[in-house]
Design brief:
Elements lengths: L2 H13 L2 H7 L4 H15 L4 E3 L3 E4 L1 H28 L3 E8 L8 H10 L2 E7 L4 H9 L5 E5 L8 E9 L1 E6 L10 E2 H5 L4 E3 L4 H12 L8 E3 L2 H9 L5 E4 L1 H6 L5 E7 L5 E8 L6 H12 L2 H6 L5
Parallel strand pairs: 3-4, 3-5, 8-12, 9-10
Antiparallel strand pairs: 1-2, 5-13, 6-13, 7-11, 7-12
Length: 305
Amino acid sequence: MLFRQLEYLVALSRERHFARAAQACHVSQPALSEAIRKLEDELDVPLVRRGRKYEGLTPEGERIVLRAQRILADRDALRSEATALRGGLGGRLRIGTVPTASGAVAHLTGPFCAEHPLVTVAVTADLRSEEILRQLRNFEIDAGITYLHRELPDGFRAVPLYEERYVLLTDAADGLDRPTGATWAEASRQPLCLLTEAMQGRRVLDEQFAEAGLKPSPRVETDSVAALFAHVRTGRWASIVPHTWLHVFGVPHGMRAVPMTEPARAVPVGLVVAAREPDSVLARALTDVARRTDVAAALERLPGD
């Protein structure tokens, strides 16, 4: 049995398509298919349901792919440990974040890369909270940044990073009565562009509206915080965005950001890793950086302050 065969099986499970899995593994589709067939022969169980096209893994395949993910994760951890023993942490750190937290991740990757110059970092910034936990559980990422306002399931641990507050982003000439603050009732009367309901960031906003006895009715929905800014820039829309994104974009010309009040809402956001032994040496190193980095203070300082 070769690591390569396990990598192909995991890729097929993830991509759910032979051609895409082969492309992800940088091999031809026949080579990937043949390697998986040999793995089936060696294990003497069918792993893939085959028809005219890929139809999914068999029940045995679903069990085996979980083992394969763990074996590959342990291999990568072993390599990282060996590299660290030779003179420095190496490898590739994979981080997944919810879209609303992607503006904060640079405050961790900066000091992390400074301390570990041999490590490369890959950030996926468009994951839902549930997907982050799934990918952590399946060894697809090493760490995630997501909301902590609900208790995490067993098998995870978290390091709080900051509390997400909200601002009403509007055209500079929108005529709000109180330029220093906006209530949720006032925001609900604006022509809103918000994140989609499937996203945790939107669900957090809906909970706040509900506490005020309101239900938002956005005319436009998107899965991108950058798209929210782009819509407000046209002068036709308003949006509610996390204060952390002002650190990324500032307050663009022609817009203003009004703090949400009555009540003001703050939702904890943190770094989440899988609680397993032995743990990932890369996740352990990032957790150490997170504990020593005051992300909250950094996000209070807007560019140019």
